[in-house]
Amino acid sequence: IWKITKHGLECVGVLQGHRRGVWSVCFSTREKIVLSASGDGDIKLWNLKDFSCIQTFEGHAQPVYKAVFISNDRQILSCDQKGLVRLWDVSKPTVGSGGIESTDDSVGSRVFEAHEGRIWSLVLTPDESGFFTGGEDETLCYFQDVTQQMLEEHAKKQEDFIQTRQRLDNLIEQKQYAAALRLSVKLDQPKRALDLLENLIFVDDDDLAGPKYPRRRARVVDRIVPALNGLLTKQSDTDDGASSESLVQRLLTYLVNWNTRARTSLIAQCVLSWLLTSWTPEQLIQWPGFARTVESLLPYTTRHYQRISRLEEQLAVLDYLCELANEHQVLESINNSFKEEAAGGGLEPNVVDLNLSMEVTEAID
């Protein structure tokens, strides 16, 4: 490091640490720090107060020919012999071997492929909105910084997402289930779609009364059919016209996941029943990945069928036991009546007990 004086150049310090020749040096405009790039593939930050190494950036596998500060010295751009440009974040150091702070390839840099071969030059635009590179492949490349545009797009997406979620809540509150389900699937929110379908299945019949939901004891699958049919038609002028087939295909991926759990298998089977009756086999076969979807559905569907069959058998036994219990209550009531009559002198209690006990035994058998 040289100092310019009236009498010429005066060496004020030496920066030692690179293992091979230094190709590039860049001074910070905000701090007393200097940046160096070397043929050993390392980039180093140096403190000009005591000429010590502050931080080492490791990641280039080839000699580094140029390194410059950008973003108010919070980031570093570097280029190497392999034709790669790396963007480093100065604020993300890690402690390397020997206690020296270093930044490795996986933590601190993003890589851009610029040229086939060495990059001899890297120059920033005056407003730092981009940079140019020139390589031995006889080409010039321009890279534009689109960070601000991406941040604005992300903020707009977040705002749109919040507004759409509020609209979804309003549709559910207004019992516009078809529009709500279509919006849930379009937003790729399987949990909201599942909650909506569960509410439709387990809601009282009186709450479903309306032109699309007649006041009657409907089958389970019939409760959700009007809402599912909403996926096939545009619901409003504000609808973006999402493809009905794409929405149903997305719903199919949801039900594959729902079918893996006993608690949500009823919803999955109801949606599957509607899907198989609304689309022809020829149409379903043309859907991407439909064969793999069927393979995923079969084992769990078989398991659910076996579970329901066992429950039906147990229910039949339970019905029989309840019927016997009712008969026993009737016989016990008759027994009490005869006892009262016998107590009044009309019959002998022992005879009454014997006869009723025999009847109960025969009924149980």
TrEMBL record:
Q: Which Gene3D superfamilies does UniProt cross-reference here?
A: YVTN repeat-like/Quinoprotein amine dehydrogenase
A single GO CC term for this protein reads:
90S preribosome
Question: What GO MF terms are annotated?
Answer: U3 snoRNA binding
Q: Per the record, a Pfam family?
A: Utp13
The keyword Transmembrane appears for this protein: no
Question: Which PROSITE patterns does UniProt cross-reference here?
Answer: WD_REPEATS_1, WD_REPEATS_2, WD_REPEATS_REGION
Q: Which domain of life is it from?
A: Eukaryota
Q: Which UniProt keywords apply?
A: Nucleus, Repeat, WD repeat
Q: Which GO terms describe its biological process?
A: endonucleolytic cleavage in 5'-ETS of tricistronic rRNA transcript (SSU-rRNA, 5.8S rRNA, LSU-rRNA); endonucleolytic cleavage to generate mature 5'-end of SSU-rRNA from (SSU-rRNA, 5.8S rRNA, LSU-rRNA)
- Every copy of the U3 small nucleolar RNA-associated protein 13 C-terminal domain together lies at 166-322
Q: Which InterPro entries match?
A: Utp13_C (IPR013934), WD40/YVTN_repeat-like_dom_sf (IPR015943), WD40_repeat_CS (IPR019775), WD40_repeat_dom_sf (IPR036322), WD40_rpt (IPR001680)
Ranges occupied by WD repeats: 15-56, 57-91
Record localization? Nucleus, Nucleolus
Keyword Nucleus attributed: yes
- What protein name does the entry list? U3 small nucleolar RNA-associated protein 13 C-terminal domain-containing protein
Identify the species of origin: Paragonimus westermani
